[in-house]
Amino acid sequence: MKTSKFVVFAYLSMIAVFELNAAVIVVNSNSGSLGNNQFCTLRAAIRAAESDASFYGCSAGSGQDTIVLPTAVTITFNQVDYNGIGNNALPRVTTAIIIEGNDSVLSIDDSAPQMRFFTVNDTPEETGQLTLNDLTLQGGNVDGSGGAIASNGVLNLNRVRVENNEASFEGGAMYCYESQALCQVTSSLLISNTASYAGAIIIDLGAELVLDKTTVSGNQATIGSGGADGGSIYVESGNALIINSTITNNQASRYGGLFAASSDLPFSTPGFIEVHFSTIAFNEPIGVVGNVTIKNSILATNVGGNCRVTNSIISDGYNLSDDDSCGLVGTADVEGVDAALGPLRLASNYQQYYPLSYQSPAIDSADPLDCINEDQSGKARPLDGDNNGSALCDKGAVEMVNDFIFLSSFD
Description:
- By secondary structure, this protein is mostly beta strands.
- The protein has helices at residues 3-17, 42-51; strands at residues 23-26, 65-68, 74-77, 82-83, 87-88, 96-108, 118-120, 122-123, 126-127, 129-138, 141-142, 149-151, 154-163, 166-170, 174-177, 182-186, 189-191, 194-197, 201-204, 207-212, 215-217, 220-221, 233-235, 238-243, 246-248, 251-252, 258-260, 271-276, 279-281, 288-290, 292-295, 298-300, 314-315, 320-321, 334-335, 345-348, 351-353.
- It has a 19-stranded parallel β-sheet that branches. Strands 7-12-15-19-23-27-30 form a 7-stranded parallel β-sheet, with no helix packed on it.
- Residues 1-18 and 405-411 have low confidence and may be disordered.
């Protein structure tokens, strides 16, 4: 897999999505219905954006639109709006739409039919591009794949919490599929989602995933004994780039952590995952399996081993594993040494990560010639974590902050 392909594709897609917005549509109701002529609901706002015409109480869209939700409200849906690749609570997205969530929550009512929130479509006649900012999606439940979102277009999640969604087949949180699809997830939290395969995210049919400053935690692949793969992320066919992220506490009956299908595994077509400056810990069973290339990262305390012994990962060096299951042979790789992670920290509604303890061998030990500017929490890299006067990048998702205070005299 070529990292440059991801970088170029991601930036071009973000430029396409963040061109000058043509219209702003303000939602003034927390109803999950279509609304009426007095109120603009989210369902009506998406229809106005899609049609470039006013709809009920919503002003007309005009090309690429921004929809603004009320601050910190919960919008609950109890009826299907669109049926395509499973039921959807909201109209399908076939144009460029940005939704400013303002820390609001979208929820599916417990008594509602099975349905996800969004489907993003990209076809020769349609170019779906959806950006979600500062939003929570919870309670989606679809008969198929993609419990909260299904996309074969361009999808951007920024500070989004995707929680307690379920798919009967693949991708409890997200289903990204087909070669034109790009799913970018930044500074977000995917937590407690379930599916038969791929508890959180499924990447298939050549789609691309970029995961940056994001935690994937507590997701489950639940099909039963001997079959469920990818408790967190399963790249069945396509590519994933994971940077500054935490993959933790995910479970499956077979491969609980990251899984990229490879030719030596049964029932699989090629998939590829590339991991940089990330922490993969406490998944059950096994941390990484298949076509995974990893650098400057931590693998720790994954039940059954950090790697599948008969299918070792490719190391680009400077990794730390607390067991020897990965067979790391890259430059400055360390095996069999405790990573000394601190307890999982909930930094915000959208962010969880493991800080390093002061004893961690990951401090100041990443590749000195390959240091990125920020860690998962947004802190600058590098910092002088061991207080020796030299600032070097740490391995893993989070940079150590040395906050000891030394006093030369006492009053």
